[in-house]
Amino acid sequence: MQAAVSAHRNPFIPTHHGSLTARRSKWPNTTVRMSHREDGPTVAVVGVTGAVGQEFLQVLSDRDFPYRSIRMLASRRSAGRHLSFEGREYTIEELRPESFDGVDVALFSAGGSVSRELGPVAAERGAVVVDNSSAFRMDPGVPLVIPEVNPDAMGHIRLKGRSKGAIIANPNCSTIICLMAATPLHRRAKVVRMVVSTYQAASGAGAAAMEELELQTREVLDGKRPTCKIFKQQYAFNLFSHNAPVLPNGYNEEEMKLVKETRKIWNDMDVKVTATCIRVPVMRAHAESVNLQFEKPLDEETAREILKGAPGVVVIDDRAANRFPTPLEVSNKDDVAVGRVRQDLSQDDNHGLDIFVCGDQIRKGAALNAVQIAEMLL
């Protein structure tokens, strides 16, 4: 599992910027917050020492998620370490099948192999699993959910009155960030084709990748050979195709996630999606250029007003000042920012739009989305 992000606060990661929703300060260590409630669910955080595991805790605290108790679960090598959260001291427990006895909600972010092995075990023992890996996303029996987009997909799952648990999948970070902006427009004019180019930050590969990017930047500026352990090539002052395995069709796995997950979330097997995913030397937060082709006409002014009213979306689209979304502006923020809203000149009769989207991969792209799913269970 990845090292905890909180153990190394990077100076390149902003805490407050612009008009987006600002996250609160780090968890209080002196007072017990009101989120601890005896009538709340028992929560397990699986992979608590990893980047997303740490962000799970941050989001639970930020949103005052009402829990009765929390179990901090990780690999054997992390077991026994102590972690302070909301005024209480916790001992990290080794992840085992019996860890889920009495658990109501299990937030998983420990990798696909762990999820495949223990996700069904947790569900069988009565927990509702919200899984951040790709293990169950394309399972037809598992809802793939973005709360602002397709909440009905998990409408049959609740904590109370159930005889056994369930598994709900968190979509891929790039899919979440893209569909937060594309879906409100899709509802109005129906997207028939979507072309996505992503510019993905180091955060997508975890805390170790973020630390290596900082290290490489210092090394290159000092004239030294860069350390290349995570991506096997220079990341600082460079960009390259996403490091996911390339499939026989020439697309990599990250690109195919955008294709397949969009179709499942929109419940539309006919929508045409193509993607190119690129790693860029940005510390945190992904950016995406999205071209949309619609079945019905949609002009840019109407699209801009739709986006302004969309939950979890903020529009930053000031042409006069040349101010549009940036990864820095959305880092550590809940909202997905959209800008560069313009008519696609290659399509006739207002049937196409281009937009530019930025979102925090660890926040809305992972932990926040999962906690929002858990909130819908209450």
From TrEMBL:
PANTHER family: ASPARTATE-SEMIALDEHYDE DEHYDROGENASE, DEHYDROGENASE, PUTATIVE-RELATED
Active site per the UniProt annotation: 173, 286
An MF annotation (GO) of this entry: aspartate-semialdehyde dehydrogenase activity
UniProt keyword terms in alphabetical order: Amino-acid biosynthesis, Diaminopimelate biosynthesis, Lysine biosynthesis, Methionine biosynthesis, NADP, Oxidoreductase, Threonine biosynthesis
Catalytic activities: L-aspartate 4-semialdehyde + phosphate + NADP(+) = 4-phospho-L-aspartate + NADPH + H(+)
Protein name, as recorded: aspartate-semialdehyde dehydrogenase
Protein family per UniProt: Belongs to the aspartate-semialdehyde dehydrogenase family.
EC code: 1.2.1.11
Subunit structure: Homodimer.
Region (Disordered): 1-21
Residue ranges of domain Semialdehyde dehydrogenase NAD-binding in the record: 42-157
The UniProt record lists the keyword NADP: yes
Pathway the protein contributes to: Amino-acid biosynthesis; L-methionine biosynthesis via de novo pathway; L-homoserine from L-aspartate: step 2/3; Amino-acid biosynthesis; L-threonine biosynthesis; L-threonine from L-aspartate: step 2/5
NCBIfam families to which the protein is assigned, alphabetical: asd_B, PRK14874.1
Keyword Amino-acid biosynthesis: yes
Lineage: superkingdom: Eukaryota
Gene Ontology terms: biological process: diaminopimelate biosynthetic process; isoleucine biosynthetic process; lysine biosynthetic process via diaminopimelate; methionine biosynthetic process; threonine biosynthetic process
